[in-house]
Amino acid sequence: MIDDDPYLWLEEVEGERALAWVRARNAATEAELESRPGCGALRESLREVLDARDQIPYATRRGDHLYNLWRDADHARGLWRRTTLDEYRRREPRWQTLIDLDALGAAEGQAWVWAGATALGPAYRRALVSLSRGGSDAVVVREFDLDRRAFVAGGFELPEAKSRVAWSGADEVYVGTDFGPGSLTDSGYPRLIKRWRRGQPLSEAQTVYEGAAADVSAFVSVDATPGWERTIVGSAVDFYSDRRFLLDGGHRIAIDKPADAQLEFRRDRVFIELRSDWALADGHGWPRGSLLVADAAAYLRGGRAFTPLFTPTPTRSLAGHACGRDAVWLTVLDDVASRIEEWTEVDGRWQRREVAAPYPGRLEVTALHDPLVASDALAECYWLNGADFLRPDQLELGRAGSDARERLKSRPAFFDAAGMRVEQRFATSRDGTRVPYFIVWPRDARADGAEGDHPTLLYGYGGFEVSLTPSYSGTLGRAWTGRGGVYVLANIRGGGEFGPAWHQAAVREHKQRSYDDFAAVAADLVAGGVTRPQRLGIMGGSNGGLLVGATMVQRPELFGAVVCQVPLLDMKRYSRLLAGASWMAEYGDPERAGDWAWISTYSPYQNVKPGVRMPRVLFDTSTRDDRVHPGHARKMAARMLDQGHAVLYWENIEGGHGGAADNAQRARMMALEFTFLWLQLGEPASPPRC
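Above: the chain's sequence. Below: its structure in token form.
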């Protein structure tokens, strides 16, 4: 494929010419938007939400402690800290700070952003801590002493890379990283997994698994459950398929499963979640979207006797599952709202119980069981977090077999929801498919008949089987719905709201269906008297940035404003840029003529034209985004500007794929976005009451 792209120089992430262009565009955008009345006040209001000290400190259990990463106005980069469950129950728990990211960054002269930690159980005295410079996916890894609260001098340490690490024992880890030429996949992730002993030069670590360059990434997982120890290595062949092996001494034993099925072992059980229909040799079979459980030892011997814990229906899909020692909790989407089911095995038979919980809304279950803790008192306990568009999150502690739960934490209400309401509607897409969407109405608002006049923001994603479900957003309430704007959440194909089939209906040669669905929702909002095109804005990020970019180019007459965040836009070159090669199972390979034939029909960068009346667009991205290349947004903005379109562009120097590295940056970015939307779409006809 020959590149005849006059804007290729903007792909030089830190090139002098490219950064000069970025600084000039940033200055123009800031001059226009930050000078608008109310932009500064909005930024401070959003910062207040993000920095609120009465947020829920969500925590991960490891042994006797709950671990949390906390950010507020005094700790912009965050505190990694821990406490006990008894303390956590208090209104103001006492926390032990392990790492102060702000202090560490100041001492080392680095803009560190937290990227996670892997602790060694069951004692949990050591952890492998991952730190990102400016929020990128690439991290440095350092060994940390949790008792001394200090990094281990001469301990395990990896330079910046997109590494994979797992403890094998106190003095041994498995590691996938950049070992030098040929050690990474075409997507830029580790291709090799090695066993690395303490004190051994990394160059002498023993290779235990080697994937192919065309794979997305090699991986390793270690289950140290006493009596059920297992180490699994393998490769993600593409974004949805993998091959897995059990390590047994010096041998690798292939695990037989459908390539795109998710498989996990839990003690004596194996759980398999299907993304494709599975026909068994004995004539039995299970539909995609099912969750199956079987005896692990029998399965590895070739047995295929399963109990289905979930099978899908046209309106119900599996959103996830969590395992206690014996109980299994399923999160089920029922017309895009959550229900919880609890399954337990009694005398060899699985029994189902529906857990009483608020409906409709969004529910998330997290099991508290630590399989490394002997006689674990929390083995059958779980967190239940529930919220919806108008009801803030509530975190409760539950136990298998009971609907009685202990209220632990509540998120404060950041906007006045009195008089607001939520409605679910369905649009009809080009091929006749019914596409659901939610409308969050501000107080006193209603459909206005044939000529709707509400400023309306339509948000979508539509990719990678990601489900968009009702959730509470204090920032959205402060910036939009609480000020009289209508908010719409579209559940288009390509997402996971109705299981794998809903996703697979809009991948590769069918990707256009996502854009048709999104346009159908927009048209339905106009036809239903909610708004009119001049007052309809759209927003999306990453794959959602591609969504709004493609829909904007194809149906510009439908929209008055576009916010396009950290987007993919140049689909001719996406597979050559950063992690792009890992997404070809979603979009196709533009290097193949047959794939490019369909990609070329929607790729925004190749299809935007001069002389067409386009809605005004704000592109925002991050220099430190090493997942979706900032060149996508840069080049699209440059091309549209040269074609005479109305474009604003803003690039945060830090932030990674999330666009912001701390709350101050995030508040500023959102203030720019919503100031732009109000500027383009206009204030509500009847301002909301204070």
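DSSP finds 14 helices and 39 strands in the chain.
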